[in-house]
Each structure stands twice: as structure tokens, then as C-alpha cells.
Design brief:
660 residues; alpha/beta; 8-stranded mixed β-sheet; 21 helices; 26 strands; 20% strand; disordered N terminus; binds zinc ion
Length: 660
């Protein structure tokens, strides 16, 4: 592995170091005075002698000191006697340092293709294919949540159609971090096809839990636990995990190198200089790749709209401290179950104020258990109590940590708020901390649970404290830092809706990325990149597959569409007996409708339908009346037109006609 790295270093230094003067002189847009031209000509001649190793020469712009040099003014010493020469030389060094292009290997015609199958036009469901001619890797396999009109759908997973077509060349899956929108769909993929699964310990631990739930523990044999800062060969790719700060511990950015060059995939990130575990983002490795030359950067766009920088996770601690110190009764803290550091900070304050800790909510318990088992956090076991024991302790000695900060109706917090929890009922002396912000789309349910908590008389600490929650995603200044460290030639903003990626594009342009080298992708776009160009070459099938958690099964799209139609337009069922000889109704038709007219108007509506039927039959031709299928079809059309005229709705119409 180490050797691979060194070879790359060598390759870059060749393309970079051999002809520095020629490459700079060749670019016509740079204007120089005649004197400077003269200087560079002289300087180039000096380089025609025997070449020294690169380390001795420095980067070629700033030659190492050579005590016996005869022309001190030429910069060989690192200094000049002529200040103007120094100005020119420095200018050139600045330009070269910012020029990624000269660091890329233009001798190779190799290309690499990048295809997001989820994660764009949405926040969630992240999965990206990176492939060469012969092999492919997947970066993350995440899930997302359904819209309100997807009735009976619990989660969405990416459409795997494209993966089926390239299955033979997939060498592995690489995981950036343990959030559901990056690992949630792994079990569903593995049901159908399995590949080696590379990740750091926490993401693998969380995926292991999923395999457990799905009764597919045997697939743990595909786990490959990686070390950060260590390059691993997967198919045609060399991949390095670089530590990143985010709202879940053990997150990573990836450096993915193939013949075409290096791709940096940030994963989800913020740049937290004072993280709880003392492991800040590995900016040094990012800078290392930036210096070597990065072909393309794929970067998290979630907070593109936010100026400034996201606050450190550790800024939440003092806010918790203030709230805990003031609380006379129980403290109930709710956050995302995966935000282990947030949970840890609450427990830390709980212990400080002499409270026992009850963790309530299955996902919260499991995640904390995994983090403790893997040694990511250390807590004395004696502080924990069960939900059933809470009543045994005085209120001011209890801290409850629970799920439900998004207002999920199945969550412990929701059940406590509506008095449906077996052990805990909210009371006026309680302080409830909602340490989160509503994920777009969840605002309604968060507001519902907030109302219930207030109705129960409890105190709520939510957005009124500015540092009660901090985001896990970097704002503009952190996105800029990433762009400046990595200095990519090409840029693909990811992890966001169109508004987020397009704002991220603006930020990238302001940080020196050429506008022509930025593409705003949609799911299914296949982008081909070489050292010279980046372009979209085709669109592959993408989309969502609907999953019903109760049955742990896929729901077909037409079923979901039918449900949508029923919910929006209602249904009309008609049973009628037709005399084909006389083209009349043999008896009053039976009309039932649901979700269309009120019960009060039911009779009137039935009569209307009957009238429509009678006049239709009178005018219908014999051929139609004698063919049951044709007759039902025509009746459906006639009723549809009539109902739309009267009610502006297109209900589902189910005619059952008996012809005699
Ligand atoms: Zn995340
Ligand atoms: Zn994410």
C-alpha cells in the first residue's frame, strides 16, 4: 500500500517538476515584461544541466540553497538582488501553486465515470457509483424518507437497476459514515447482491445492527474494517479514509485514486476544530492531496445557503449546563439517536448535577451501546437506570435521554407527551430539551409534538437557546476551506437539492474553480472525467423503490399511485343490471362512493349517476351493449366526464355491469 503511494508521488513529480518553466511560459494569458522574459530564458538554460533529485531542487520554483552559485540575483539562493525579479518570481510561484492543471497527469488518456443514483434533488438516499472501464465502487448506500402522499410507505431505497447491469465489475462498497441516508439501504442491496463492504468501525457496527434486524448476520463476512490514513486497493482504485468531523462520530472523507487521477469525496462534513473526542478533521491529508493535484472534488452542499461557519459541537455543552443548573425537576433531552457526542454531553452534565440517566428508545439504546462497546465513549455503567426505575428517584435526580426530536409518532417522546408511555408521563416540573432542528418536511410533526409537550405543562427548551443544537454540516466558510485545501480541477457539488448545489457552485467559483469545470448533476447522470475534460455522457435509470417496514417488503409503484389517487380523488363503485334488448336498466343501480361526496349528498349523487346511465344506454349502439368489457369501459368514460364537470375530481370508477 505504501508503495502505491510512493509511485504516485513519483509520477506527479515527473509531470510537475521536469518542465516547470516551459509550462508557465507556454500559457499565453500571463503577461510579463520583456525583462522577465529574459530572466526566464536564462533560468531555463540553467536547468539544462544534469538534474538533481527533486528534494534538492525544492519544487523547482524555489531552488534549495547552492552556496557556490555564480549568479545570486537569479533566485538560486532563494533570494534576489533585483527586487523586480523577486516580484516576478513570487508571482509565478503563486500562480503555479494555485494551478491544479499542471499537477495532473496529462499523458494518460484514462477516464473515470461518476454516477449518482441518489442524494441529489433531495437530502437523503446517498449512493454514488465511481467506475473505470473494468471496475466500479459504490460510495454509500443510503435510504430516504417518503413524502406525505406516499401512503403506507415507510422508507425509500435507491433503484438498483443500474447496479444490476454493472454487477460483474463492482469491486466493493465504501462507506463514509453511519447515518441512515448513507447506510440505510445496505440490507436491501445485500438481499440481492453482495460485495466487500469497506468502512471504519462505527459504520460497520451500525450496519451489523441492521443485518441483525434483517436476520442476515451471515453477511458480516463481507465487512472489511479499514484504518484511516491507509490506502487500500479496491479493484482499479486506491482508497484512503480521512477523518472528518460531523454529527456522528467516526465519519470520513475519501480520497479515491485511479489512473485518471484523484477524486476527493467529502462525505458529510463540518470543520470542527474543538470536537468532543479531540479528533479534528484531518485537514493535513486533504492538503496533502491538494498539493499532489486533485482531479475532482465531490462536496457536501447541505448548508450552502448559510454564510459563516457552523458552530462546534462543544458549544452545546455550556447551554446544557445552564439548563441543567436551572432545572428543578426531571430533565428530558431528545436528539437524533446517532448523535452520540450530543448524548454524551447531556450525560456528562447529568452526572455533574447528580442525576441518574435513563436512555429510552430502541435506536438510542442500540447506538449508545455500539459506541460504548467499540470504545468511542466511556461512561460508568452505574449511572444508568431503566425507564421503570425512574419513578423511584426524586425528580431532580433524573435525566431522560430519548428519541423523537423529529416528532415521530412512534417515538418515546411523543408517547410521553400524549400520555401513552408505559412508565413516563410528562409533568409541569419537567424540562424538555429538543436538541435538534426539524429536517425539511418534518416541521409539521415537530410542531405537533411541541404543542403536546406544552399542553402537558412541561418547560420546553428548543430554538430559544441559540446553541442548543448545532448542525453537522459545514456552512460557506467551511465549504471554502475544503475547496481551497483540495484545489480540484473539476467540482461536483453533492448532497443537496438544486438550490443547495447551485449555491455551492457559486462558492466554488469564488474560490477559484473555473465555472466551466463545475457540473450540477441530477440522479442518474453519468459524468465522464479525464485530466482534460468533464462531461455528461448519458443518463442511467434512477429513482426510488418503496419499502413497507411492516412487511419488510417492497411496495410496487402502481400500488402507491393507486393509493395516492384514492386519497386525492376518492372512488365510485357502480353495480347495474342491463337489459340488452331494450337498452334499459333492469333495476335501480347500486352506487357507492367514498371520499367524493358527503353522506348527506349520497342519495342525490346516486340518482345523478343513474340518470347518466339511463341516457347513455338509450344512445349506446347495440355492439357496445352486447360486449360486457366494452360496455364497462364506455360507462367508465361517461361517468368520468360527468363527475369531472360536476365536482372537478377524477375518482377511481369501478363499474360492474351484468347484461341480460
Ligand atoms: Zn451525515
Ligand atoms: Zn448525509
Amino acid at each position: 500500500m505504501e508503495n502505491l503511494e510512493q509511485n504516485n508521488e513519483q509520477e506527479n513529480s515527473n509531470s510537475n517538476g521536469e518542465q516547470p518553466a516551459v509550462q508557465t511560459e507556454g500559457s499565453g494569458e500571463r503577461q510579463r515584461s520583456a525583462r522577465a522574459e529574459e530572466y526566464f530564458k536564462n533560468r531555463k538554460q540553467k536547468f539544462t544541466g544534469p538534474r538533481r533529485p527533486r528534494e534538492e531542487r525544492g519544487n523547482g520554483e524555489n531552488p534549495a540553497q547552492a552556496p557556490g552559485a555564480q549568479h545570486p540575483s537569479d533566485g538560486q539562493h532563494g533570494w534576489h538582488t533585483n527586487i523586480k525579479n523577486a516580484i516576478e518570481a513570487n508571482k509565478r510561484i503563486q500562480q503555479n501553486r494555485l494551478n491544479t492543471d499542471i499537477k495532473l497527469n496529462h499523458n494518460s488518456k484514462a477516464t473515470v465515470r461518476i454516477t449518482p443514483l441518489g442524494g441529489l434533488e433531495e437530502i437523503g438516499g446517498n449512493i454514488t457509483v465511481i467506475e473505470t472501464q473494468n471496475s466500479a465502487i459504490l460510495v454509500d448506500v443510503g435510504m430516504s424518507f417518503p413524502d406525505d402522499d406516499m401512503h403506507g410507505v415507510d422508507i425509500l431505497i435507491p433503484d438498483f437497476t443500474y447496479l444490476r447491469s454493472i454487477k460483474h465489475k463492482i469491486a466493493g462498497i465504501v462507506i463514509t459514515h453511519a447515518h441512515e441516508d448513507h447506510i440505510g439501504a445496505v440490507p436491501y442491496l445485500f438481499r440481492e447482491m453482495q460485495f466487500p463492504l469497506y468502512g471504519t468501525p462505527l459504520p460497520l457496527g451500525m450496519i451489523g445492527n441492521k443485518f441483525d434486524e434483517h436476520k442476515m448476520l451471515e453477511y458480516k463476512r463481507f465487512f472489511r474494517a479499514v484504518e484511516k490514513r491507509r490506502v487500500i486497493k479496491i479493484g482499479d482504485f486506491e482508497v484512503e479514509w480521512m477523518h472528518m468531523t460531523h454529527s456522528v462520530i467516526d465519519a470520513s472523507s475519501l480520497a479515491i485514486t485511479c489512473e485518471a487521477g484523484t477524486i476527493i469525496h467529502t462525505g458529510d462534513f463540518k470543520i470542527d476544530h474543538t470536537p468532543i473526542d479531540g479528533y479534528p478533521a484531518d485537514l493535513h491529508r486533504l492538503a496533502h492531496y491538494g498539493e499532489k493535484g486533485v482531479l475532482c472534488l465531490l462536496s457536501d452542499s447541505t448548508n450552502s445557503m448559510r454564510p459563516g461557519a457552523t458552530l462546534s459541537e462543544s458549544s452545546v455543552g455550556p447551554t446544557f449546563d445552564t439548563i441543567f443548573s436551572r432545572s428543578k425537576g426531571r430533565v428530558i433531552m431528545s436528539t437524533f439517536s446517532s448523535n452520540i457526542h450530543r448524548v454524551y454531553q447531556a450525560i456528562d452534565k447529568g452526572v455533574k448535577y447528580n442525576r441518574k440517566v435513563a436512555i429510552i428508545g430502541r435506536s438510542m439504546e442500540r447506538n449508545l451501546e455500539v459506541a460504548m462497546n467499540l470504545g468511542y465513549i466511556k461512561l460508568p455503567f452505574g449511572i444508568f437506570i431503566d425507564a421503570a426505575e425512574v419513578a423511584k428517584y426524586p425528580d431532580n435526580e433524573v435525566l431522560i435521554i430519548t428519541t423523537g426530536s423529529q416528532g415521530e409518532t412512534m417515538s418515546a417522546l411523543y408517547r410521553m407527551a400524549v400520555n401513552e408511555h408505559r412508565h413516563i408521563k410528562l409533568k409541569p416540573s419537567d424540562t424538555v430539551i429538543l436538541s435538534s432542528s426539524a429536517i425539511p418536511g418534518n416541521e409539521g410533526s415537530v410542531s405537533t409534538v411541541l404543542n403536546y409537550i406544552l399542553k402537558a405543562g412541561a418547560n420546553v427548551a428548543y430554538k430559544d437557546f441559540s446553541d442548543i443544537h448545532v448542525s453537522g454540516h459545514g456552512a460557506q466558510e467551511e465549504q471554502k476551506l475544503m475547496l481551497r485545501l483540495v484545489k480540484p480541477k473539476f467540482f461536483l457539488p453533492i448532497h443537496g437539492e438544486y438550490q443547495h448545489v447551485s449555491k455551492h457552485k457559486e462558492t466554488a467559483i469564488s474560490c477559484g474553480v473555473d465555472e466551466r469545470n463545475i457540473l450540477l448533476m441530477e440522479d442518474g447522470d453519468q459524468i465522464e472525467i479525464s485530466s482534460r475534460s468533464m462531461r455528461k455522457i448519458k443518463t442511467v435509470k434512477s429513482g426510488k423503490v418503496y419499502i413497507d417496514n411492516q412487511r419488510n417488503n417492497q411496495i410496487e409503484e402502481d400500488v402507491v399511485m393507486d393509493r395516492q389517487e384514492l386519497a386525492e380523488n376518492g372512488i365510485v363503485i357502480i353495480v347495474a343490471f342491463v337489459d340488452k334488448q331494450n337498452k334499459t336498466l333492469l333495476e335501480k343501480p347500486k352506487v357507492s362512493s367514498f371520499g367524493l361526496v358527503s353522506d348527506r349528498d349520497d342519495r342525490h349523487f346516486s340518482e345523478e349517476m343513474e340518470n347518466v346511465l339511463v341516457s347513455f344506454l338509450q344512445n349506446a349502439n347495440k355492439e357496445v351493449v352486447e360486449n360486457k368489457r366494452m360496455l364497462e369501459n364506455e360507462i367508465r368514460q361517461v361517468l368520468k366526464k360527468h363527475i369531472f364537470r360536476a365536482l372537478k375530481k377524477y375518482p377511481v370508477i369501478v363499474p360492474t355491469i351484468f347484461v341480460q
